[in-house]
Amino acid sequence: MSWGTELWDQYDNLSFHTQKGIDFLERYGHFIRDRCLIEMEYAGKLRRLVKNYQPKKKEEEEYQYSTCKAFKAMLCEVNDLAGQHEVIAENLQSDVIREINYLVKDIKEERKKLLQDSAKYVAMINNQVASLERSRKNYEKAFKEAERALDNFQRADADLNLSRAEVEKQRMNMAIKNQHCEESKNEYANQLQKTNELQSQHYKALMPEVFRQLQELDEKRIRNVRHFMAHSADVERNVFPIINKCLDGIINAANQVNEKQDTILVIERYKSGFEPPGDFPFDDLSRGGESTPLVLPGSGNTYVSSGVGAHRSESMTVKGTMSAGKLKKRVGLFAIFSSNKLMDVCSSVKNNLSSSG
Amino acid sequence: MSWGTELWDQYDNLSFHTQKGIDFLERYGHFIRDRCLIEMEYAGKLRRLVKNYQPKKKEEEEYQYSTCKAFKAMLCEVNDLAGQHEVIAENLQSDVIREINYLVKDIKEERKKLLQDSAKYVAMINNQVASLERSRKNYEKAFKEAERALDNFQRADADLNLSRAEVEKQRMNMAIKNQHCEESKNEYANQLQKTNELQSQHYKALMPEVFRQLQELDEKRIRNVRHFMAHSADVERNVFPIINKCLDGIINAANQVNEKQDTILVIERYKSGFEPPGDFPFDDLSRGGESTPLVLPGSGNTYVSSGVGAHRSESMTVKGTMSAGKLKKRVGLFAIFSSNKLMDVCSSVKNNLSSSG
């Protein structure tokens, strides 16, 4: 079934239908364009998220721990994931939107050309029919004049009062009019033949060919819609393996998180290397103030020191070996420490002790 | 290696470090929360896109064509795809964000309790050391008084001018002071024993236990970061099969697009069922205006009609059989038609023809 034969009289509907088809294709293109924008926006938001959560310069020290390293690695993967949505948008742009734009332009031009052709054919047949009508009227007029000339001759021939010359004039006139009528009839016949030939060609060849090509154009459009729709799904699916790898990357990053390793790092970072203070010695004044360890029943402690004061000053020396920076940090930490109310109590106890010691 | 033994003197750093750990966990929670928002926004945008491109009521007639049907089916799939991103957001919310919030609350409380315990232990040892210092000073004072009493007694005993009663008084005083010094010494020894016992317990049991529990708490936090990170990737991956099905759905929809079927639908929709006009007949006036087909050499056409005018009126009847609605539509289509300049020429030819016929 072809538009050329079945829809020979549906020029306007075909013009309308093919325009609707182009509108649909453009609308589909706009849909993909809007989808692209959403993918780009999504990717942009993911990238901004990653940027917002990048470790700050001052936090670099923390990024030796496995949790922080994993978080940083995960941010990289989310960034790559964002990139894959940009790939979707770029491929939709190059493989679908651009191709749709080309196709719409082609189809519009082709449709316009075909409609112009068919308008030309309609004008041709209409002109021919007008010529036919003119030649038929000429024939009608010549026929009437020939009839009148015959009538005049017959009347003249019957009128015995008229001269032979007059009768001969009417016969001549009748012959001329008859001749003219014959010529007009032939011209009319010629025009009729031309018109019928052209009309037959118009309805059987020219217009069917235009409509056949319009149908082909519409089928081309529809085939391409199928292609674009399937391809846009493929574009989306094609990034799956890489998105999967990004997710594998996040799982790998997570598996690098090691709580034992991290708490050992804390030891390495903060360990002073000092031993906890030993027992206070017994300050036996009866032996001239010589400090002796307090030997208690069952206690194996043999620590000897030069007295409580000496012990205190030793722990001061310990503090003195710390770097200035470390001391500064400790001050900072004490500040945090002191924000706790209970800690205040503890701290004041400490101060009392050091002032009384 | 344990924080309890290795970091016995790093209370402040451990307080600082565990706070940093909680900050990290909260920050990770905020990251997932922000990611959720992006997923929800993406899903919302896809849903709005689908809504914007839903066929309008007035376009329903077009939706009999396979391209339009496929487009509608594809919109459904994109809507389902949006739903899967909502599933990601919902599962991140319930499985990760909520769990992180619970964990942060637990760890904060546990850490606070441990720091309070350790502050209590520090206060205890400091109080004990202060008591020790007081008892040592009492002992020192009593020792000096005993020394002075001994001195006084010896001086009195050597002075032969003094009465025995006076000497006896000094001996008594010396004995009392000695007794008091012995008592103070014992008290000092007791306090020293208590202090050393408490200090040993403090550094070997109480504080190590607090630090060990802080380490356990930190390890629990780190283990959970691993778990949350891996789980959030799984949440994302879990929707893949359904997203894949959505894409399959789009490909299936595309494959339903059938150009041949659609152009046949156009024929069914617009076909008038009329035959193209036949030849114009020859209006032979010499046979009294009887219309005869123009018999041309080699033409098999035997069409007979009652003249050009009759033929025209027949084609009018043909038009008369069309429904009013269809005629109205055709008027509308002619309006489109006449917007084309070339069509104007063609149309005016047509009008001339019908006025002259």
TrEMBL record, chains A, B:
All copies of domain F-BAR, residue ranges? 1-262
Name the domain of life.
Eukaryota
Q: Does the keyword Coiled coil apply?
A: yes
Give yes or no: UniProt keyword Phosphoprotein: no
Keywords assigned: Coiled coil
InterPro entries xref list: AH/BAR_dom_sf, F_BAR_dom, FCH_dom
Q: Which Pfam families match?
A: FCH
Question: From the record, what ranges are coiled-coil?
Answer: 97-201
Protein name stated in the entry? Formin-binding protein 1
Organism expressing this protein natively = Schizaphis graminum (Green bug aphid)
